[in-house]
Every structure is written in C-alpha cells, then in structure tokens.
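Hello, quick one for you while I still have it in my head. A protein chain has come my way and I'm curious about its shape. I'm sending you its amino acid sequence along with the backbone structure tokens. I'd be grateful if you could look everything over and explain what you see. Here's the protein in full, and shout if anything looks odd to you:
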Amino acid sequence: MTIISLAFVALLLQAALAHPQPVGDSSEVGLAAEAVGGLEPRAIITSSTKAISSSKTVTVSTRSKCPPPVVTPIRCKRGLVISGSYADALVKAFSNSPKICWVENWYSAPFKNIASSIKFIPQNYGKESNLDGTWTRNAETAIANNATHFLGFGEPHTDGHLHMEPAEAVSLWLKEIEPYACRVRLGAPSIVQNGRPWLTDFLSKCEAAGCTISFLSCHWYWRADQFEDFKANVNKCIQLANGKYPVWVTNFQASGDSAAQTGFLDNALSWLESEPRVQHYGYVAIDKDNGFLGPGQQGLSALGKYYAN
C-alpha cells in the first residue's frame, strides 16, 4: 500500500472517530409519515440529545425514512367522552347510534362492551399514565385491535399534579408517545380556553426536537348560553393549526339544564359538522342529572337521543 493510500485511510479513520454514527437501541423512536395537509413524510429517528431549555434536554436524531401508518378514516365526525360510574350504561345506550363513531375515556384501555361500529381512541393523559407500564401495554393492545389514533396529554397547562411545562412535556412525548408515530396518528396535548400560549410553546419545542404531531386537540367548558364563545375558541385553535394540522374538539360541555344544552348543541353541532377544518368532536357525557341517560340511568334521555341522532 502506498504512503498516499495509508494517509487517506488514516484520514477516514480520524473522521469516523470524530463523528461516530448512532447505534440503534431502546432509545430509538419512530417518526410518522403523516399525509395531513400536504405535510412531508416523516422518518424513523435514532436518538441523540439536544437542549430545549436551560434545564431540559430531549431526544433528537438523524432521520431515515419510514412508511406512513396505514389509517382507515373514522367514518364520521361525532364522538363521545365517557368516564365514571355511568360509563358502561352510556356505552350501552349509544351502541346503536348512527351518528356516534368514536369514543374516549381519558384513559388508554376501552370499555368492556363497546360496539364494533364505535372506534375507541386511547389517551396518554400525562406523567402518571405509565408509572407501572400501563400505557405501554394498553397502547400495544390498542394497536393490535386496529387503533388508528392516540390522544396526547390531557390539559398539562393547568395547575395540579399532572401539570407540565412545555419542555417537560416534550421529553415525555418523545419517551412515551413518539415511538408509535409510524403506527398511528398522534394528537397534540389537549388544551382548554386559556391554554394556547402553552401549546404554542410546546409545538415550537416539539418541532425542534423532531416530534410527530398529526392533529391538534382543544377543549371547551362553559355555560350553554355561550355558543359564540365556544365558536371563537375553536376558531382560535384552527388559527393556531394554521393549515398544518386538522383540529379535534375532543372535550366540550355546556353547563345548564337539558333544554339549555339542547339549544347549545343545536348551534354547535350544525357548525361543527359544516366546518371542514374540524375533523372530529366529542361532547362530555358524564353529567348524570342533566346528561345523556334516562331515568334510573337506563337508556337515553331526550338530550342523549338528540345527540345520538
């Protein structure tokens, strides 16, 4: 071998030592190839670390392409948010509804007797969702049962034990939600009316870290006479999405008696169905006194029948 060749080999070895390639291991995370709003296909990513604030680091990567998740569209917009002691009765009461096609319960495992026509959407509600591996087990089970969408953290901008700063939420996202990005579509953390600054910060940090976001998720709670406020807040979520993401209104509820809620829903459902930038919406159906169940928590109330049909 010539002196020139030996020198060339030495240079190659020096470059390789200076820039080692990451080795795939348990820290690898998937990045989905979502085709929402004309977005570029994303990629499988191999981890390294990058600072996103003075005190937080998150996993980022070099990318190699992965195929997009094959997702069957949910057949309609309307869904339900069901939880608590009346959950089974509500699931049974809505099982034959022609208008209800998805349900969530602020948890990652479905109800026992959910109708095959209704799609269950698992949710990782936050930093206590996977303390004993529950989220990981349930997420894998959901995918095995043909889940197509996951919901991200629930209102992490609010005070309480599930509160997270955006940087902390990005780190948890990369650890617990991003690994499913090549298999299902992923909804951003859900926010209520005052949460848009938090979500703006999260989306900026998440994009820099290489997160996959498939859709935004917004919540709204107030009085039944506040339809215009509801509409304005959903429109602000649509503006935040900026054509990049569809919007899901995953939790909304208007306080008031059955007649007041019916009046609110009469306006809200018509508008939500006609607004093309709202992909899905779900009313919170857990109020036993003025809610969707009939007397004795059997069958649907007049309000429930209105929403079901």
Summary: Residues 218 and 237 are 7 Å apart (CA to CA). Residues 1-64 have pLDDT under 50 and may be disordered. The radius of gyration is 22 Å.
